[in-house]
Amino acid sequence: MRPTLPPELRPARAVVRRSAGSWTLQSTLHRHGLGPVAASTRRPRACAGPLVVAACVLRPGDAKRLDGLTDSKLLTAAAREEYYTLIRRRAQDLSIVIIPPEEVDRRGVHIANVEGMRRAVAGLDTVPGYVLTDGFAVRGFGTPALAVPKGDQVAACVAAASVLAKVTRDRIMVALDAEYPQYGFAEHKGYCTPVHDEAMLVHGPSGVHRYSFVNVRAARDGVRPPPVVLDDDTIEAGLGEDPVEGLVHNGALAVGTSDGSRGGVAP
Questions:
Q1: Cβ burial, residue 160 (10 Å; 0-12/13-18/19+)
Q2: Are 110 and 196 found together in one domain?
Q3: Which pLDDT tens digit goes with each residue over 228-246?
């Protein structure tokens, strides 16, 4: 049984409400001596292109300078670019990890997400006192961590990591569009859309597609995939949230848990 402090020695419990603003969680952690606060998130679960994971530490006093910062999906492309530049200039620390499609296929999406977050946080020069992760719990940071549902809409530091990851990945996909113009990567950024599925069916998947996804495998075999549109918005709405069910993953590459006990294919 884990020992506990007597009530008179326990610190006052901090209550953080969503309505208090996106800087409240980070400020509360700092006030309780748990700073600096790092946040990590990833973009995206797409069927082409790399997985990009970012970690970010914002300066506690930068709320006004980063006013309006929120979930990257809720910002226009122009606003994301502006915040990206501002975050890179103002952040106390940041780290971006790019995981190629073949590693995502080999390890599974969820394991790649988890390991990407660990690598991104490990890549920070600043040693965080606390880590916030977007959506699901991740262990192995060597410091206390908290999973924040819809974190990029709740915590500014998670939103900052979201912008860093999305803008980095969008730029990569635009560059890949010049190399593979037949797929329209500049438009859909590698998400599973009807237009993307049709292009794969006509031209076949490329070397930057993720062959662990059933629609990519179907296109490779000349079979029209089921009409599933998978992007960050549908994931946030709950479509495909259970990775073990394999909505987009095939059965040969089961997605594992955060401790790595059942995911991917052995290297």
A1: buried
A2: no
A3: 555 554 443 333 333 332 2
Q: Which two tokens stand for residue 261?
A: 């006990």
Residue with tokens 């049984």: 1
Phi, psi values for residue 7, rounded to 5°? -50, -40
Q: Please give the radius of gyration of the chain, using alpha carbons only, rounded to the nearest integer.
A: 19
Cβ within 8 Å of residue 210, ≥6 positions away: 46, 47, 48, 101, 104, 105, 216
- 154 with 190, same domain? no
Same domain, 168 and 183: no
**Backbone dihedral angles phi then psi of residue 236, each to the nearest 5 degrees:** -65, -30
134: three-class secondary structure by DSSP = strand
What integer pLDDT is reported at residue 236 of this predicted model?
39
* Structural domain boundaries enclosing 187: 179-245
Q: Are residues 89 and 143 part of one domain?
A: yes
Closest by Cα among 144, 188, 172, 151 to 71: 151
pLDDT digits (tens, 9 = 90+) for 202-228: 999 999 999 999 999 999 999 987 665
Mark which of 150, 172, 194 sits at the end of a domain: 172
5 in a domain, yes or no?
no
